[in-house]
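To assess whether ligand presence alters the predicted conformation, the chain was also submitted together with iron/sulfur cluster. Input:
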Amino acid sequence: MLGDRDLRGMVDKAFDRLYDDLSIKVDKKNNDRIHAYEAAHCTRLAYYERKDSLPPDNPDKISILLSHGMRKALSNVRAEYKADSLTLEVDADMLVGNEFVVRFEVVPQLPELPHPRHMLYLNACLFALNKNDGFLIYMTADGKTVQFSITKNNRMFEEIIRRARVLSTLLKDGKVPIVEPSDLCLSCKYYSRCYAREKIKEETADFIADLFGKGKPK
Ligand code: SF4
């Protein structure tokens, strides 16, 4: 406490406001409008965020503040692609020379290959903005970067449209999408809804330790 003011509470509220401001804007009430971010990531997570969301945890907030805070400083281009009754929305980070679409990802370590979900997302931006080439730039907090170029690809676009349609249909039907195991799960706030997690019993732990020759000395 600072005087009679709750400093921690004030900082948390400021963080929450920033988080709301920086989060990708999704029209949660319109199931015919799906953001490419939702379709490229886990559709189950997107479903929970729309229908039965948990408040963001601190790692969530910090990751949004880092990545989306940086994005906010860029030119940010919003666009959409209509496929029958479905509208796929995108937010690209930059349009260079009105020709190249750029998307940044802040990561703890630079990857050797671009992540498929980031490629799906950038490819959706190319279609929505009607451009042929894009750059995916990975960046670490200490300023290291690596970049990959991608060219508009029909099959990848069909895949993100398919995923967006599945999400849209399941949202309308009130059915939770299947679990999509990936690296995202490890830091996902919905982990316990997707995976049963029970503490291993002591005798089971001893048995496993014995198997590897690490049992207690008899
Ligand atoms: S734990 Fe994994 S499968 Fe479940 S919602 Fe999160 S990212 Fe999706």
